[in-house]
Amino acid sequence: MDSKTVVDMIEASSGVHFSGFHMDGLEVRNKETGQPTISAAENLHRQPFVIGVAGGAASGKTTVCDMIIQQLHDQRVVLVNQDSFYHNLTEQELARVHEYNFDHPDAFDTEKLLSSMEKLRHGQAVDIPNYDFKSYKNNVFPARRVNPSDVILLEGILVFHDSRVRELMNMKIFVDTDADVRLARRIRRDTVEKGRDIATVLDQYSKFVKPAFDDFILPTKKYADIIIPRGGDNHVAIDLIVQHIRTKLGQHDLCKIYPNLYVIHSTFQIRGMHTLIRDSQTTKHDFVFYSDRLIRLVGTCFG
């Protein structure tokens, strides 16, 4: 095995986890106090696991969230909907409500969404508005109190659009469903639940929904760590996602039980070194070199 090639491969790595998590290395101890410094990775474990779920309207985002919540029944999980943060319409906008684009990024109060998410991430309860789609107001019904939890699911068509919102997420899921299926679901939902006629639904779809999907929603698919075709019908994908979440939460629980425990995160470099020292074809020189690097890393955390 070419040592130079192996070294180049590991040193050139960006440290990006295969699932899309960006984990910084554990920091060394503070030289003045001798206490471990708080790294970005450690801080991540002290905060809730935030999962963004995006996709077109009627793609099955809520179904995916419900299935994740159901399978994580032994954890504290809350759902935050981007729809709750629609702006109240002005009198002028209400007079021409059928000309209002609810699928445009400007339709949402992103600043309020960011404020609510930051509070939840820092252990504070928040009151989430209940948006009324008949009066187009968010102050008709009492707000919903949301308490801090282990997992926060943030669901909405444009939750990946703003980089500040994306940065809050530990995992980003894009629900990818065929356009015809989404349209059929939207017609059924809007006519049954919202009392709209089919002509109005189709007119809104052609004027606003489809263009907004092409211009604003579909481009954010590139930010997803995981893409789920067929939405809630894809049980295999959802099972894998839940297993991954359980693994992350399990590490979090260990840190709660044992305050002096540091979980060394699975970065590309660490997995690469583990692979090399377990490979029977690895030379003695490489084995000693990378074993020493792993030992030094452990020593940095616990020494």
From TrEMBL:
Transmembrane segments: none
Record has Aminoacyl-tRNA synthetase as a keyword: no
GO biological process: CTP salvage; UMP salvage
Naturally occurring in which organism (per UniProt): Citrus sinensis (Sweet orange)
Protein family membership: Belongs to the uridine kinase family.
Enzyme Commission (EC) number: 2.7.1.48
Superkingdom of origin organism: Eukaryota
One example GO MF annotation: cytidine kinase activity
Leader sequence residues: none
Annotated Phosphoribulokinase/uridine kinase domain residues: 50-236
Annotated Pfam families: PRK
Protein's UniProt keywords contain Translocase: no
Family annotation (NCBIfam families): PRK05480.1 (NF004018), udk (TIGR00235)
Principal EC category: transferase
Reaction catalysed by this enzyme: uridine + ATP = UMP + ADP + H(+); cytidine + ATP = CMP + ADP + H(+)
Record's protein name: Uridine kinase
Keyword tags: Allosteric enzyme, ATP-binding, GTP-binding, Kinase, Multifunctional enzyme, Nucleotide-binding, Transferase
Pathway in which this enzyme or protein is active: Pyrimidine metabolism; CTP biosynthesis via salvage pathway; CTP from cytidine: step 1/3; Pyrimidine metabolism; UMP biosynthesis via salvage pathway; UMP from uridine: step 1/1
